[in-house]
Amino acid sequence: MRTNILTSILDNDFYKFTMQQGVITLFPYAKARYAFINRGKHSFPAGFANILRKAVDDMALLQLSKQEKDFLRITCPYLSPVYLDFLEGYRYDPSEVKITQERDQLHVSVEGAWYRTILWEVPLMSLICELYYLSTNADRISDEAVMERTRNKIENYLHLGVTVAEFGTRRRHSSAVHHLVMKALKEYGDGSFIGSSNVHMAMSYQTKPIGTHAHEWFMFHAARYGVKLANALGLEHWTQVYRGDLGIALSDTYTTEVFFKQFDKMFSKLFDGVRHDSGDPLLFADKVIAHYQQMGIAPITKSIIFSDALNYDKVARIAAHCRNRIGMSFGIGTSLTNDAGPAALNIVIKMTAACPEGEGWTPVVKLSDEHGKYTGDEQAIVLAKTILEID
Question: What general EC class does the enzyme of this chain belong to (predicted)?
Answer without folding.
Answer: ligase
